[in-house]
Amino acid sequence: MFVWKDLLLFWRDRKGLVLLLLMPFLMILILGFAMKGLMEGSPEALRMKAALVVEDDEASGIERFRTELRRRSLPEAAGSALAASAEQASPYTLLKRMMENEEVGKFVEFVPMDAETAHTALESGEVKAVLTVPPEFTYKALVGMLLGEDGGAALRLTAGESPVHVDVLQGMLNGFVRSLNFRTALGEYGRPDAEPALAAGGVESMTDAKPMNSFLYFTLAMSVMFVLFVAGTTAAKAFAELRGRVFDRVLLADRHPLRFLGGKAGAAFCVAWLQLTLLFVLSHLAFGLFPGRPFSFWLGLSAINAVLSIGVGGFAALLTALNFRFRSSTASSMFSSIAVTVMALAGGSFTPASLLPDWVMQIGVWTPNGLAISLYTLWIQGFAAVDMAPSLLKLAAFAVLTLTAGIYLFPARRRVA
Hints:
Blueprint: H1 2-12, H2 14-34, H3 36-39, H4 43-46, E1 48-54, H5 58-71, H6 76-88, H7 91-100, H8 102-105, E2 108-112, H9 115-124, E3 129-133, H10 137-146, E4 156-159, H11 163-185, H12 214-243, H13 246-252, H14 257-287, H15 295-325, H16 330-347, H17 358-364, H18 368-380, H19 385-409
Parallel strand pairs: 1-2, 1-3
Antiparallel strand pairs: 3-4
Helix pairs in contact: 1-14, 2-12, 2-14, 5-6, 5-10, 12-14, 12-15, 12-16, 12-18, 14-15, 15-16, 15-18, 15-19, 16-17, 16-18, 18-19
């Protein structure tokens, strides 16, 4: 039986097999501890220092707004109410209150600086970002919010090369602006309680599952990346058999060539499924990833392992066919050294996909490892089968496509002299 023969080939290379099965666990251990604070939203891990450059004169802005009200000859009652609103809740005053908020202080420390010093500090890495309050900010913001005109007020955020930290600050500023706009739309701006509400932050889940921690994420990420190496290893072993005339003996024994190819795909499936299952079990025992989960949960996890493993078998068949057709092991070598790395980067194996640029994310959702991470995440968080169907069908189609291509390209007869 060809599958059994190929499994024995894996077993004979015990050092390579142990490396293939256990190296991912070592990577999970390292990355899980290294990224723990960042993945779990720890304030210490996300804490940053930002420069605050104030080019606006708040008092002058309010006085100019009052002058504008008098120029427009508004009814006395309306003019007085608007002037009082500007005094009670100046946009810059509210911004300062936000920056001094205790919850915001856990993540961002604002350091007042002049423009030149701030940008020097940004270039040296002393600060992660520069928040600039431009000239006439108070006046333009008041005109926009209280008079309903586009005053052109905008805060300027200049960021360094630290996208995660900057995203935190950008999110806070966006929330501040949305809150002001919302209260203005409701006619609440200027009331004593009009200060924008600040959320402490956190993650809301649509299911009863807890948010994913670093060890769980990298268990998924490293598992789906390293399982792809099984395909390259299988194809490389197949080419070694070709060079050792094993394929010739298969043909002389009047065995159909596709039985040889089927053995490679079947062995790759078995090793991939074993690798995935072993990694999930070891990670669960070491890090307590799935406490109290029922047996049905593990059956579902095993089913996803099987679908992904079929895809690995399809890859093994395709790479084996390419090695045989082009009389070289280049296909399997390039797959293991280049293609797997590219798919890992795009699919979120090295860093959470949410931290990647949008165009990379769009590519990642079509990679086998990206699809697998999506499937595992949905299953672990308790989503319904209908939510998983698109990713599951894509992964299954990918497996069928690679297997079919491998069968089509595999040479029916020996072509290497």
